[in-house]
């Protein structure tokens, strides 16, 4: 009989322990004068995730990205990227970033797109061949153009080339498709899906909530510098706890009567078309008939991500904030 040795507890833990976070915010605070942009932020991003960062204006999205990229220093708390400081992670080539601020306007006017992208590839510790980067970003046809002669959508694609100039493990995108046409947006997200399939972590801030709904496997909603919601798109929708009701009427609606309906959390009237949100759709629809109304084309459905986002953030907004 051959003796067998049970695997050590240490070995078991090594095989089953989850990978450490790619990004960690621990008790992070950042203020600008009297404005507190980031407040006791706790946030952890993991390898291979595609994360959408959402929030109303002033929610702290840009400040959070600036802290992650080492462009600003927290007043207190700790930001770690791949277990070290953001500056060290970037110097080692772990992070690629596509920011709203232009990379094209900060260089001399005579520089071409190819020269600019080649510089990014040469500076990256694990740079890709410049032709590969140009093709991936869809800018091969404008490679010889001066950077000050680009359209807004073309500038966005050059910024994307900067973000993917080397083999980075984390790609950070701030409003990446602003200014792009529909075809360019589809091509861009097809490329990012391929990046995610290769195991990279993708973090993008966007105001296009349909992109977050379609692309992200995790959605984080910031509000007043804190995480208000964190989960899959379906989980965020469920958090809103409401459903959409829409119908048309034969005559002009009585808005005052509609606003008094039970369980109503939102109402929009456009001509004879009524759209509402309700936490108890059955009770609301029953009350609509109770008013003697006969809704046509009645539809009851779950909230889309945009409606859920609005419902969640509206609920967290104070009367003072709403009046600003």
Based on the model shown, name its key terms.
35% helix; 26% strand; 2 domains; 4-stranded antiparallel sheet; alpha/beta; Alpha-Beta Plaits; globular; 324 residues; 6-stranded mixed sheet; Rossmann fold; disordered N terminus; 13 helices
Give me the number of helical elements: 13
Outline type: globular
Counting helices, strands and paired strands, the structural category is alpha/beta
The CATH superfamily title of the largest domain = P-loop containing nucleotide triphosphate hydrolases
User: Largest sheet, if any?
Assistant: 6 strands, mixed
**Share in β-strands:** 25-35%
CATH architecture of the largest domain: 3-Layer(aba) Sandwich
How many E-type strands? 13
Strand ordering within the main sheet: 5-6-7-3-8-9
How would you spell out the order of helices and strands?
A: HEEEHEHEHHHEHEHEEHEHEEHEHH
From the 3D structure, determine the CATH topology of the largest domain: Rossmann fold
Question: How much helicity do the residues have?
Answer: 25-40%
Uncertain runs: 1-7
Integer average pLDDT? 88
């Amino acid at each position: 009989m051959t003796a067998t040795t049970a695997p050590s507890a240490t070995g078991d833990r090594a095989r089953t322990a989850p990978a450490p976070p790619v990004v960690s915010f621990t008790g992070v605070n950042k203020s600008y004068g009297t404005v507190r942009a980031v407040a006791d932020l706790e946030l952890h991003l993991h390898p291979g995730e595609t994360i959408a960062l959402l929030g109303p204006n002033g929610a702290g999205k840009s400040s959070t990205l600036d802290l992650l990229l080492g462009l600003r220093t927290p007043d207190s708390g700790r930001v770690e990227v791949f277990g070290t400081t953001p500056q060290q992670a970037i110097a080692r080539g772990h992070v690629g970033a596509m920011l709203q601020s232009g990379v094209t306007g900060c260089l001399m006017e005579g520089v071409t797109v190819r020269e600019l992208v080649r510089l990014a590839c040469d500076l990256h510790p694990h740079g890709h061949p410049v032709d590969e980067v140009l093709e991936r970003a869809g800018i091969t046809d404008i490679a010889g153009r001066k950077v000050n002669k680009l359209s807004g959508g073309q500038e966005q694609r050059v910024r994307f080339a900067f973000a993917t100039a080397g083999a980075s493990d984390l790609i950070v995108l701030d409003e990446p498709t602003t200014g792009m046409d529909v075809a360019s947006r589809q091509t861009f997200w097809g490329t990012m899906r391929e990046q995610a399939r290769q195991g990279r972590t993708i973090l993008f801030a966007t105001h296009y909530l349909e992109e977050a709904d379609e692309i992200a496997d995790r959605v984080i909603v910031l509000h007043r510098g804190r995480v208000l919601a964190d989960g899959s798109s379906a989980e965020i929708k469920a958090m809103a706890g409401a459903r959409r009701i829409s119908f048309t009427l034969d005559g002009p609606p009585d808005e005052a009567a509609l606003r008094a309906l039970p369980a109503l959390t939102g109402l929009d009237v456009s001509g004879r078309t009524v759209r509402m949100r309700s936490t108890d759709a059955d009770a609301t629809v029953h009350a609509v008939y109770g008013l003697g109304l006969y809704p046509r084309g009645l539809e009851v459905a779950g909230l889309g991500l945009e409606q859920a986002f609005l419902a969640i953030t509206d609920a967290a907004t104070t009367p003072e904030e709403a009046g600003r």
